[in-house]
Specification:
The protein has one domain. With 177 residues, the protein is mainly α. It has nine helices and no strands. Helix 1 crosses helix 3.
Amino acid sequence: MARNSLDEWEAFLRPQVAEVDLLGEIDLPEEELSHLGRPIGDLVREHGWAGAERLFREKYPCSFAVFMVAQGAREYEAGSFWSAISKATGLSIPPGQTRFWGQLFEDIVADLPVAQFPLMGGPRYVELILAHGGIPVYCLADFFEHFIDPLIRQPENASSPRRSSSRSASVTTRRSI
C-alpha cells in the first residue's frame, strides 16, 4: 500500500514502534523509504523548519524517527549522514539545522518506548541514530572482516568471558506509546 501523507505514515509506523526495541528493526524497504522522505521534505517546505519540527514532535514522531534511522542504516558513509537526509527529502539543510534535527531526534526517541542509549562518545546525534539502525550498510564489510571472520577463524576467542561495559549495561527500554 502506497502511503503518501505523513498521517498515513504515522498510522502505519506507530504500532510497529510500540513492538520493537530498536527503530531499525522496522522493515522499511528502500522504495518505501523514498516515499517517506518526500512528505518529510514537503512538510518543511510548507511550514518552515520551526513549524515542521513542532509537527514532527507533536504529530509525526514515529515517522521522523524511523526515517532518520532507516536513512542512517542505508546511507551513512564514512562520516557522512546529513547529505543523505538532504537528498532523500529534497531539502537543502543548513549546517546549523542538523543540530536542531539531531536534538529533535534525541527528544523524540526519549519519549518513545524503545531502547535508550547513553552518550557513547561518537558524533552527537548521529551516534544515537546509528545505534538504533544497527551497523550501517557501508560498514558491514569491515565488520565482517575485522570482527566476525577472526571469531570464525579463532573460535576460542568467541567464548572467552568478557565483562560487559557499563555502556551496554545501561541501555534500557520502555513499553507504551
